[in-house]
Amino acid sequence: QVQPVESGGGSVQAGGSLRLSCAASGYTYSRYFMGWFRQAPGKELEGVASIYIGVGITYYADSVKGRFTISQGNVKNTLYLQIDNLKPEDTAMYYCALGDPSRVYDVLGERSYNYWGQGTQVTVSS
């Protein structure tokens, strides 16, 4: 019923920027969590940023602070991830996820989120 859809990925040079977008349909709660996760080849899924929709509090992994910015769109159930100063280690599939507030204990933990998009690929070359 709830289906997040990501867009905005691509192939860029190190030092460049990308803006990822997510739209999640079919969700009617006023307060919930939306987050961005990534998975590089051979690596575990990593939560990079999340936001408490309806409150405005944001959360970031230490590895991306200062380079990644998560924000809520003007349209309901939309989300952005601005990525600046891209590094080769940022290469990964990036996923948007939505979590019901009742199940979110770790705001960057994958088990806190119950609706997932199919992902958008980010590739950074050196």
Report on the structure:
By secondary structure, the chain is mainly β. The protein has strands at 3-7, 10-13, 18-25, 32-39, 46-53, 57-60, 68-72, 78-83, 92-99, 115-116, 120-125. A hairpin with a 6-residue loop joins strand 4 (32-39) and strand 5 (46-53).
Describe this protein with a few key phrases.
single chain; 126 residues; mainly beta; 7-stranded mixed β-sheet; 4-stranded antiparallel β-sheet; 0% helix
Helical content class: under 10%
Strand fraction? over 45%
Low-pLDDT regions: none
Distance between the first and last residues' Cα:
40 Å
Overall body shape: globular
Q: How would a crystallographer describe the biggest sheet?
A: 7 strands, mixed
Q: Using only CA atoms, what is the Rg? A: 14 Å
- H and E order: EEEEEEEEEEE
- Mean pLDDT, nearest integer? 94
For the secondary structure, the number of strands is: 11
Structural class: mainly beta
Number of helices: 0
Quick take:
By secondary structure, the chain is mostly beta strands. It has no helices and eleven strands.
Set down the secondary structure blueprint.
Blueprint: E1 3-7, E2 10-13, E3 18-25, E4 32-39, E5 46-53, E6 57-60, E7 68-72, E8 78-83, E9 92-99, E10 115-116, E11 120-125
Parallel strand pairs: 2-11
Antiparallel strand pairs: 1-3, 3-8, 4-5, 4-9, 5-6, 7-8, 9-10, 9-11
